[in-house]
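Handout, section 3.2

Students often ask what a structure token actually looks like in practice. Rather than define it abstractly, here is a full record for WAT1-related protein. The first block is the sequence as you would receive it.
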Amino acid sequence: MEETCSRAGFGKKFTKAKPYLLTVGLQFGFAGGYIFSVASLNHGMSRYVFVVYRNAIAALALAPFALIVMCQGFTFLGMQYTSASFASAIMNAVPPVTFVLAVILRLERVNVKEVRSLAKLIGTLVTFSGALLMTFTKVLKLSYFSLLSQPTTKMEATLLMRLSGTVFLLLGCVAWSSFFILQSITLKRYPAEFVVAIVATRHSGLVAWALGWDFRLHGPLYTGIVTSEITYYAQGLVLQTRGPVFLTAFNPLCMVITSALAALGSFLFAEQLHQLLTA
């Protein structure tokens, strides 16, 4: 009897903790996705080819919405013009954008008299302010130490590249937030996480591009299997129980993980220490 009660108690605790464990695990998966994506792009792989292979691999492993391709296209384009740590920091704008969209679509209820709602509002403002501060700091400073030795023409080109990359990353934030909202609505009407994950990652990559036994292969494999098929399924589980705002609230953790991994493997991405610190 006691053993049965103990198991039941553990089951309830695990059920409550499962959304947190899944969401934290997702951030580790996303962090690895940033690292592998930048490595693949720096090894000469086209961002368009990368998006196709990522979704093609995910589709083969599990069995697009056009919004998925748009999310990835904007994000990878912005990442190519900036860096992994900067991209993961800018993506912190996803939680506040998701919260605003959820409120507009009445997926999230806000009552300023409730502590929970007030905490969400404050968290949204803080997160969005941090993302904006990160954007202006990174773009305006432009890695001061590296630009001192550059001629004016090259410095202007670098500035334009960083600004363009930032804009594309912000567009990617909006696209990802829209995708989370769409996935949440879809699961409410059709509660089958596995099927939704298959549909979300199905992509017709019919053109065969050459792959090398390096990050041009490792990047699409990792992002296709881990950050597409596995994460979409896990996202579905979390979205069903806690909603899109809860899911995206853990995004800042991804920035910490990505910066730590980038610091350990900076020789792969040519990211200097001061660039990581300003990120």
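Discussion prompt for tutorial groups: Residues 203-210, 269-279 have pLDDT under 50 and may be disordered. How would you have guessed this from the sequence alone?
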